[in-house]
From TrEMBL:
Coiled coil: none annotated. SUPFAM superfamilies: FKBP-like, Triger factor/SurA peptide-binding domain-like, Trigger factor ribosome-binding domain. The lineage of its organism: unclassified sequences, metagenomes, ecological metagenomes. Belongs to the FKBP-type PPIase family. Tig subfamily. It catalyses: [protein]-peptidylproline (omega=180) = [protein]-peptidylproline (omega=0). Residues 255-416 form the Trigger factor C-terminal domain. Residues 2-145 form the Trigger factor ribosome-binding bacterial domain. Its EC number is 5.2.1.8. It comes from marine metagenome. This is peptidylprolyl isomerase. Keywords: Chaperone, Isomerase, Rotamase.
Amino acid sequence: VETTLEHLDGDRVRLTVAVAEDEFDVAVEAAFRKIAREVRLPGFRPGKAPRKILEARLGKTTGRQEALHDALPNYYSRALVEHDVDAIDSPEIEITGGQETGSLTFDAVVPVRPRATVAGHGSLRIEIPAPEATDEDVQEQLDALRRQHATLESVERPADDGDQVTIDIDGRLDDEPVEGLTTSGYLYEVGAGAVVPEIDENLRGASAGDVLEFEAAHPEEDGTLAFRITVSEVQARVLPEPDDDFAAQASEFDTFAELEADIRERITVLRRSQAGMMARDRAAQAVADLVDMDIPPALVEVEVDNRINDMAMRMRSQGFDLPTYLEATGGDLESIRDELREGAEVSARVDLGLRAVAEAEGLEADGEPLEKYLTLLAAQVGGEVEDLRTALTESGRMLEIRADLCKQAALDWVFERAEIVDEEGNPVNRSLLESPEPEIMVPGDGGPIPIADDEVGETGSSAAKPVDEEEE
């Protein structure tokens, strides 16, 4: 198979592929064996009719057309791999020779990932929450703990948000009691926002002994609910004093100072564990904001496909699949795609931005980064590094791996040079920002990597399939 590459305008390339007659005849022979299994000819068992008989009965072009359908995707994929073409959509195929006799030639015009440019990527300012507990954080947690241990005390005043009221409630639809809305002696927190907002609106300012009658639209179906609520008691929450007695009651500590210090430490540990990842995410977003170009819809759809595949993999790991989920929830795949599209466009912009940084700074994935990745991946999937390298290269997945490693290097480069501040504009101590270890994932569709004499598969992307290829 001989291939050439021509760059076209509009982020497209033309692959010209020529397959020698003897090699294409191997595909034609396989096509006739396939046809022999599918047709029924008098005097021959299924699959046993000779090629010459089939050619005489069905015509020589029948086998060639079947071979084109079956073998052309593989020839196209091999051309993609040979020239490291980063296709983002299905190609337009034009067969230019060999449909009836001789060697096969065809052209494939395919959109490729555009190349963005970025400016100012070496002097970004990144803002993250302070990676340590503030006094407000600690006070919020202490107040929440005090609310958990609060007591109720009857009060002789109108109810307000946060008060507990004991009520008899009678909710009716078309003069019929509604299950769950008719009960006596029910303890309700004013402002809880349960059922309908009109309940809270009427309870605010109500006192013990008040009878409230009002209507509200049914929240789940057509119709109007009629409510009658009798308030029998109003109780206020009484928070415990923030002292040593409270600390001993609510925690394992003997003093309030110890409890406060523990809460501060726990919040700080959590904040620091999140800070590194958040800072890197915001660095990536800052790079994306530098990409001043429209994102090709095809590239967005590739990102949507990736997210759908990730979702399906997570579901399979939990024991169910995407079709089952859609059936159970009454959803459809297109609606999910629509929901994912906005985030996918952001991811596509991040992708182009980091690739642009890598190109601008001469960052490469070959050498130690690639060898380390392959070694870890080989240990994960079970296999030899060289066998893995060969399989990944022949399947086209090595291009994706190199791109991911380059983007990781680009993000590291940007992150190391960025100014990182908290929300008050104060510099953040970088020693508190732990860099997460990148997860070693099987590239492409997450499927098994052929590491033996397995047949070379597709590139792991729908972009590798001709537009007229049908799913088997």
